[in-house]
Amino acid sequence: MFDRQGQRKTDINNVRYLKTEKEKAIMSDSKLKKEIETRRTFAIISHPDAGKTTLTEKFLLYGGAINLAGSVKGKATARHAVSDWMEIEKERGISVTSSVLQFNYGGFCINILDTPGHQDFSEDTYRTLMAADSAVMVIDAAKGVEPQTRKLFKVCAMRKIPIFTFINKLDRDARDPFELLDEIESELGIPTCPMNWPIGSGKGFRGVYDRDNEKIVIYSDTFKGTREGKAEEISLGDTDALKKTLGDAAYEKLMEDVELLDGAGSPFDREEVDGGVLSPVFFGSALTNFGVEIFLQNFLALTSPPLARKADTGIVDPVSDDFSAFVFKIQANMNKAHRDRIAFMRICSGKFTAGMEVLHVREDRVMRLSQPQQMMASERHIVEEAYAGDIIGVFDPGIFAIGDTVCSTNTRFEYEGIPTFAPEHFARVRQIDTMKRKQFVKGITQIAQEGAIQIFHELNTGLEEIIVGVVGMLQFEVLKYRLENEYNVEIRMDTLPYEHIRWIANRDIDIDHLTGTSDMKKVTDLKDRPLLLFINSWSIGMTLERNEGLVLEEFSRN
Ligand code: G4P
Q1: Residues 410-456: pLDDT tens digits?
Q2: Ligand 1 — pocket residues by CB below 6 A?
Q3: Which DSSP string do the residues of 262-291 spell out, in sequence order?
Q4: What is the DSSP string of 434-472?
Q5: pTM
Q6: Gap from CA of 51 to ligand 1 centroid (Å)
Q7: Gap between the Cα atoms of 171 and 285, Å rounded
């Protein structure tokens, strides 16, 4: 009996012990799961001036991260002229500010990735999109789809991430909303599903019709810098109230539109949204804070938590005990006093804890990530812990390259590389002092390896000249400045008329025998891959026609 009891006691104790451990594991599992599943990591893409900064500001306002709109991140620096740029970089040192903002709203932990435009537009802008799980596309209602939107959209579409559209500035005279949707569909090739619908625009803007809830949300411009205000709402069925508020003409027009909308347009389909083949569209005015919170709420509810990512060992589940991340951006410090760089990593699985050891897979080296930092609202701070979906910046003494994977030391795998994107501006670059050839080649190659510029050599010419390609013109200035300041080499740059570059995807093609157009130039890149340069897009089509089976690509995947 005693024995039995004793035995039982031991059993119970064991069970208790097991249960406690199991409970602990489940608890930590569910904490990890909760942390990760409430994360939303997205980029806001737009053409300059469409309202990206204003919309971000309003998001932060709702998140309680800022009190007054207008105080958000480097807006002033986003507008600076080329000449100011070096000074600004020097003053601010390495800036995490412009890369990611984190804040909480409605139970979500939100990471907004900045996609620099204006003068800062560069290949980094594209690379940043590799770290996002979804995108918000802001379109100016008076302008429609603009060039930079088109470029950024293409990269998002390549990754098949969900893309939500916010048509902004309805408080100003806007184009016909049907026409805007047609333009998105025809120019970007993505069907749209309007979630709400504007009633008038500019001085005649009366509000939006919320299709799902069949109600009209009445426009008011009094909520600009606040988050307290709640717009008046009227049900679609309440004809009298609607006519009174909107006026007869606006009411009739709304009824016509509602009928048209139900007949035309794509129906909402969650799977299609998740697969990036249908874009939900919202209308509003970021400046007056109208339609922003509704958009944010819908977007957060409909967009996905951190996505599983492809590695060489298969798909990696974000909710995993093992930490992993990849480097998507490296920012060199323009300040001579701080020669170090900062590497931005997107955490793809598990949890990061300060001081933990990680494996740098390409270098096959166990290391600690030095001074990991994150942006919380507008303050930079050292990260104690971070989860899949988060972005951290770490000091890089020169060991990281774009696309590198770091992971828990008990695992070993590498994420798919980051594509190289086609530059759009080209220049022939040479050193002024011929004696400095060695430093010149070393400097320009290192800067290219960091991913700030791309360099090409002409094929079969024996010329030693280097062709530099950049996505944004400012990178030419960065190159010149860095070669002079870091490598003590002065250069001469002659811009070239090329605007398009294509990688040749066929491995078996005989480059020497390719028949192109007279403006075509054959070059190789840093990895010796063959490419073609063209002055106009017409030549690309001609070259494809003249060389059967030739496959040209706008980005290179390895
Ligand atoms: P960006 O980041 O996409 O480049 O655009 P940003 O938010 O800086 O907005 C560009 C301009 O458009 C700003 O005006 C901004 O106030 C205005 N804007 C943004 N959203 C709306 C909107 O919904 N309605 C109206 N009417 N204007 C909007 P600015 O005069 O260039 O700058 P600021 O002096 O207002 O700072």
Answers
A1: 999 999 989 999 999 999 999 999 899 999 999 999 889 888 899 99
A2: 46, 48-54, 117, 168-169, 171-172, 285-287
A3: HHSSPPP-HHHHHTTSSEEEEE-BTTTTBS
A4: GGGHHHHHHHHHHHHHHTSSEEEEETTS----EEEEESS
A5: 0.86
A6: 5
A7: 6
